[in-house]
């Protein structure tokens, strides 16, 4: 998934790009064998009823392309690594997809650059071992509409996983639920979702009574 973001990530700090803890990306084939992409999207509820969706960290476009085939609106995908942005653009173009916008952007420092409260969902995949997960979740909450969801996956808290950050910084589902609550804007919608072979997922709901921002 993410080039600068997934399995690590990149954030801005004092105007500089800084790798998030335990970052790094394998080549595309090795990376994509670690995911059952269609199962993950199915179990997270990514279906045609969704309109515009934002993805933080497109990487190789692993989720971007199948996501764009499923939603009724645009997929706005972001990554800090220019080569990952170009890879995803080429991949979407090759598939004939006209609803994908890919941008090289430091979202943590500069935001998504999209109007608040306009997206049906925001994807945060393998990124919440970030050193300020509450701030990251708050950014996601701000960009989704009331009644929208922040969709999260992460590596299981299990040393047998073939990749993933060190267990000392790898979040458990209950931690993510606590971080979501700490934003004051998100709550866990349903239970923990099993995403074999190596991940779990959570749907975080922004209640319909909350306005943008």
Would you write up a description of this structure?
Strands 3, 4, 5, 6, 7, 8, 9 and 10 form an 8-stranded mixed sheet that branches. This protein has a two-stranded antiparallel sheet with strand order 1-2. It has a single domain (10-205), classed as Vaccinia Virus protein VP39 (Rossmann fold, 3-Layer(aba) Sandwich), CATH 3.40.50. It is an alpha/beta fold and 213 residues long. The radius of gyration is 15 Å and the shape is globular. It is built from 7 helices and 10 strands.
Strand and helix layout:
Blueprint: E1 10-13, E2 16-19, H1 28-32, H2 37-44, E3 53-56, H3 64-70, E4 75-79, H4 82-94, E5 100-104, H5 107-110, E6 119-125, H6 133-143, E7 144-155, H7 173-182, E8 187-188, E9 193-195, E10 199-205
Parallel strand pairs: 3-4, 3-6, 4-5, 6-7
Antiparallel strand pairs: 1-2, 7-10, 8-10, 9-10
Profile the largest sheet: 8 strands, mixed
Strand portion, in percent? Answer: 15-25%
Total number of domains = 1
Number of extended strands: 10
* Shape by Cα distribution: globular
* CATH architecture annotation: 3-Layer(aba) Sandwich
CATH topology: Rossmann fold
SS field, number of helical segments? 7
Structural class: alpha/beta
**Helix share of residues?**
25-40%
Unreliable spans are 1-19
Fourth-tier CATH superfamily name: Vaccinia Virus protein VP39
CATH class: Alpha Beta
* C-alpha-based Rg, rounded: 15 Å
The residue-averaged pLDDT reads: 87
Distance between the termini: 27 Å
Tell me the series of helices and strands, N- to C-terminal: EEHHEHEHEHEHEHEEE
């Amino acid at each position: 998934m993410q080039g600068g973001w997934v399995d690590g990530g990149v954030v801005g700090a004092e105007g500089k790009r800084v790798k998030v803890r335990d970052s790094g990306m394998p080549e595309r084939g090795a990376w994509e064998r670690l995911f059952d992409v269609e199962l993950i999207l199915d179990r997270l509820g990514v279906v045609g009823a969704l309109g515009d969706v934002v993805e933080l960290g497109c990487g190789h476009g692993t989720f971007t392309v199948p996501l764009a085939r499923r939603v009724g609106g645009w997929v706005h995908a972001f990554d800090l690594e220019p080569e990952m942005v170009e890879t995803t653009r080429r991949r979407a173009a090759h598939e004939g997809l006209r609803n994908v916008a890919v941008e090289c952007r430091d979202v943590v420092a500069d935001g998504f650059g999209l109007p608040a409260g306009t997206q049906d969902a925001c994807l945060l995949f393998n990124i919440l071992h970030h050193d300020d997960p509450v701030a990251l979740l708050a950014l996601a909450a701000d960009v989704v509409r009331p009644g929208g969801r922040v969709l999260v996956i992460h590596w299981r808290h299990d040393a047998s996983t073939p990749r993933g950050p060190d267990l000392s910084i790898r979040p458990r589902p209950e931690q993510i639920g606590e971080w979501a609550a700490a934003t004051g804007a998100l709550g866990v919608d349903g239970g923990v979702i099993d995403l074999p072979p190596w991940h779990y997922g959570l749907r975080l709901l922004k209640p319909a009574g909350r306005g943008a921002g």
